[in-house]
TrEMBL record:
Protein name: Mitochondrial nucleoid factor 1
Organism in which the protein naturally occurs: Echeneis naucrates (Live sharksucker)
Any Pfam family matching the protein: UQCC2_CBP6
Keywords, ordered alphabetically: Mitochondrion, Mitochondrion nucleoid, Transit peptide
GO CC annotations on file: mitochondrial nucleoid
Length: 129
């Protein structure tokens, strides 16, 4: 019976769309990792709670099939902030990398300013006796 569950989860992983703008951070990647860790022995994996496993599969399958999106259609394609989907692309991996580089640039600039002390700021040596 666990072989059937394993195959169903594999099929779900194949069908789940990947977001190429969020490599390594998207839900499809996370789902694949969780299935791999849950079914370490493949079809021979023993499931401790088959009902919970089936419930998880059904929930994920409904999300993947857009059941809730069809049941509760959105009036506008924006979030509560009014930001559109295109404006949310800021979270893509490329843009995140650019933001990190900018932060590093600002951080390096601050460190240089703080580390380059004027001679007046440095403590003088105490005279030797």
């Amino acid at each position: 019976m666990s072989a059937t569950r394993y195959r169903r989860f594999l099929k779900l992983c194949e069908d789940w769309p990947r977001d190429e703008t969020k490599k390594g951070r998207d839900l499809a990647t996370f789902l694949r990792q969780r299935v791999a860790s849950a079914f370490r022995e493949g079809e021979n994996t023993q499931i401790s709670d088959p009902e919970k496993c089936d419930q998880m599969y059904e929930s994920l399958a409904r999300i993947n099939a857009n059941v809730y999106r069809q049941r509760f259609p959105r009036v506008r394609d924006t979030s509560f902030t009014g930001i559109t989907v295109e404006e949310c692309r800021v979270l893509s991996s490329g843009n995140m990398q650019q933001m990190d580089e900018q932060k590093k640039g600002v951080w390096n600039m601050l460190m240089k300013r703080l580390s380059s002390k004027s001679p007046e700021d440095s403590p003088e040596k105490a005279p030797e006796k």
